[in-house]
Amino acid sequence: QVRLVESGGGLAQPGESLRLSCAASGSVGTIEAMGWYRQVPGQQREVAALIRPNGRAYYGAAVSGRFSITRDGAKNTVYLQMNNLTSDDTAVYYCYADASWGQGTLVTVSP
Q1: What is the rounded CA–CA span in Å between residue 31 and residue 2?
Q2: How far apart are CA 111 and CA 54, in angstroms?
Q3: What is the SS3 assignment for 26?
Q4: Tens-place pLDDT, residues 37-54
Q5: pLDDT tens figures, 3-33
Q6: Residues 6+ apart with CB under 8 A from 83
Q7: In what order do the strands lie in the sheet with 2-7?
Q8: Between vectors from CA 8 to CA 37 and to CA 73, what angle results, nearest 5°?
């Protein structure tokens, strides 16, 4: 079992940046991929970014080129740097590690 604790959501204006953090604890040695999904109420959850232990990253089409995911293996933590935010990025962002999910953190982008 992996426990995930997220931080860093909040309010930003269009064009601004935010950084999310997700710290994993528990059975971290078995994690194959870790990262972030996001969900707008009434819509399906979609991948934002994932990263593997070897550092290889995958980005959803909507965020590619603006978001960057990194990981600190020593801290079992992943970070999502979100740049040039738009209102379309408004969503609840969920940390993901294999079959485990965080509680979600709200990101609101509004003038």
Answers
A1: 8
A2: 38
A3: strand
A4: 999 989 999 999 999 989
A5: 999 999 999 999 999 999 999 998 888 888 9
A6: 17, 66, 67, 68
A7: 2-7, 18-26, 77-82, 67-72
A8: 70
